[in-house]
Amino acid sequence: MDILIKAFFNAVLSLSSVVAQVSYSIPEEMAKGSLIGNIAQDLGLDRKRLTSGKARIFTGDSAEYIELNRERGALLIKEKIDREALCGQTTPCALHFQVILENPMELYTVVVEITDVNDNAPVFEKSDMKFKISESAVVGAKFLLERAIDPDVGTNSLQSYFLTKTDNFALKLKDQPDGEKIVEMILQKPLDREKQEEIFLVLTAVDGGEPKLSGTAQVRVTVLDANDNAPVFSKTVYKATIPENAAKGTVITRVSASDADKGSNSNIMYSISNTAADVRDMFEINELNGDLILENNIDYEKARYYQIHVQASDEGGLTDSCKVTVELFHSRGNGKGGCNREYSPGFRFTSRQIKIR
């Protein structure tokens, strides 16, 4: 059936011309049946022409979010659109489709941009963070906190963090080139186990929407004795490249940290932190030697680049972090497309352009 549809569409392209293109911009989550726009009016067509020409929509894929009402000459929401499910973090997010008419055969291209609404609050995947910190930890010691995740984009995405006011700790945010933030808790006043053995704090993540949405995580600090040196990675960024057909169990690279302390306080454990759940599922790390290992199959068409944050912790609770970037070799293609795909250069567009917002 799919082959027949594609063959028909190719025949349409060969016999028709693109008369015009029209663009719309709508927010996500509009109710089923909501009006997108008067396509007949915007294309300068009589509504009777839609009926006589058996006007219909061709999307090119199985996901049909929009329908054409010939009698009204209108485009309507057929299924509620979730921008995050449709496009993830890709912006702009748009649906591309064609309106086809017969007798004579005509083709109109339609682009519907889906704008973000603030329908997601920041969420901490790890809502309870526990630290064991020596009372001898020096002022300025840093402790990596888990980041929150907010699938919204633009101003609706996660913007800032706040930590419960405390004499001992301050919050520090480090902007990354990719726009993400590293969240650290900095010791600004020495700890005294005899005065306070445990400290309870709340980390709050806030987005930039209206109204602002937020999420919280609990931070629990247990004060220990004597650990003077934190682990230190040999590099802040490790880079590796692997083919997309690499086998499960492949050792991608090894990270390495050292600790100047002696005895049990020099023992280092490696773990993956501050990394999206779907990426964590793809990789694992040997907690003893720092080997980063491929855990699942990878696909160049789905992702060409992975970023993993690794934490090194000693038994006294001090930490350091590094970033591992993994780039894939392309070894095969499957011809997959997406919601923002480019169309054939065989389409002929006129200069007529209508923008409805």
UniProtKB/TrEMBL annotation:
Give any Pfam family that matches.
Cadherin_2
A GO molecular function assigned to this protein is: calcium ion binding
The coiled-coil regions, if any, are: none
> Span of the secretion signal?
1-20
- Has keyword Methyltransferase? no
The cross-references to Gene3D superfamilies, in alphabetical order and at most eight, read: Cadherins
Q: Where in the cell is it found?
A: Membrane
Could you tell me which CDD domains the record lists for this protein?
Cadherin_repeat (cd11304)
Domain Cadherin, first and last residues per copy: 18-124, 125-233, 234-347
Cross-referenced PROSITE patterns, in alphabetical order? CADHERIN_1 (PS00232), CADHERIN_2 (PS50268)
Q: What does the record say about its membrane topology?
A: Single-pass membrane protein
Keyword Nucleus, does the record have it?
Answer: no
Q: What is its main location?
A: membrane
Which InterPro entries does this entry report, sorted A to Z? Cadherin-like_dom, Cadherin-like_sf, Cadherin_CS, Cadherin_N, Protocadherin/Cadherin-CA
Question: Which GO cellular component terms are attached?
Answer: plasma membrane
What SMART domains does the database record attribute to this sequence?
Answer: CA
- Entry keywords, A to Z: Calcium, Cell adhesion, Glycoprotein, Membrane, Repeat, Signal, Transmembrane, Transmembrane helix
Biological process terms in GO annotation: anatomical structure morphogenesis; homophilic cell adhesion via plasma membrane adhesion molecules
Q: What is this protein called?
A: Cadherin domain-containing protein
Which species? Acanthochromis polyacanthus (spiny chromis)
